[in-house]
Structure formats: structure tokens, C-alpha cells
Design brief:
The chain is of the alpha+beta class. 44% of the residues lie in helices and 22% in strands. It binds zinc ion (ZN).
């Protein structure tokens, strides 16, 4: 997404909202060079779907993911725009793949992979929710891997 003012190719998403009725995403972006702010409407070609472990299919929900990420990063001083970028990155990867359907397990791994790079504490917090640890050993194994 190029800046409409100076043409710089790198812009930062500062806010992202899905427009339920039109299946489009409204984004506030800021140019990394001149800090010009502008709004884009990005249309989703096909709705992305998530298949849960019990077989039910749900629409890929950015907001739901954001709530989970915000819970995981509470008091970690991570800018919301970083989380938006993380979700953007996942959405981009999903849209680049051959299918519009992803299993919740694969989606969880995609989140964890990115969260691990962003913040280790947030990663552990999110993992504990997302992977639904069966017992404490499983959780400790996860902790050990990070040492
Ligand atoms: Zn600019």
C-alpha cells in the first residue's frame, strides 16, 4: 500500500475494522516516511473460513483474534498497530494459499509463530489459551522450550 501523498511503499495500519455488510475492511494507515494518514477500503474476494476441531466452520474473525491477542499482551506495552500487523500478516498468508479454509489448529500455530517473535510472555499466555493445555506438564514443556 503506497502512501498517496509521497508514494512511499511502506505504510503502517493503525486501525482496522471489518464492514459486515460489504465484506470489506476499512483501514486507517500511516505513511512510515511522511506520517500522512489515510483510509483504505480493502475488499475481500472470498470470505476466509476457520474449521474448528469439532468440525464446525466459522468465518475468519479478525476482531476475535484481536481480543485474544490483546488479552495475551496485556501490560506488555505492545502497540495495537503491531497486533494489527500480525493479523494482517496472517490474513495475507491465508489469502495467498490455495484454500480459503484453515483449521483452527493451523491458525493457532500461525498466531503463535508470530507472537513468539514479538513477545515471549505474550506467546506463553496466548499458547495457554489457544492450545488448551491438558495439564500443567504440557504447559511446562512449552515454558522449557523458551529457556
Ligand atoms: Zn508519505
Amino acid at each position: 500500500m503506497h502512501c498517496p501523498k509521497c508514494g512511499h511503499p511502506e505504510t503502517r495500519v493503525i486501525d482496522s475494522r471489518s464492514q459486515e455488510a460489504s465484506n470489506a475492511i476499512k483501514r486507517r494507515r500511516e505513511c512510515r516516511r511522511c506520517h500522512h494518514r489515510f483510509t483504505t477500503f480493502e475488499r475481500c474476494e472470498d470470505p476466509l473460513e476457520v474449521t474448528k476441531s469439532d468440525g464446525t466452520v466459522q468465518a475468519f474473525d479478525r476482531n476475535k483474534l484481536m481480543v485474544g491477542l490483546m488479552r495475551a499482551t496485556i501490560k506488555r506495552d505492545i502497540d495495537t498497530s503491531k497486533l494489527n500487523e500480525l493479523i494482517d500478516d496472517i490474513e495475507h498468508e491465508l489469502r495467498s494459499s490455495a484454500t480459503t479454509n484453515v483449521s483452527s489448529h493451523v491458525l493457532g500455530d500461525m498466531v503463535l509463530k508470530r507472537l513468539e517473535r514479538l513477545d515471549k510472555v505474550a506467546y506463553i499466555r496466548f499458547a495457554s489459551v489457544y492450545r488448551d493445555f491438558k495439564d500443567v506438564d504440557e504447559f511446562l514443556d512449552e515454558l522449557k522450550k523458551l529457556r
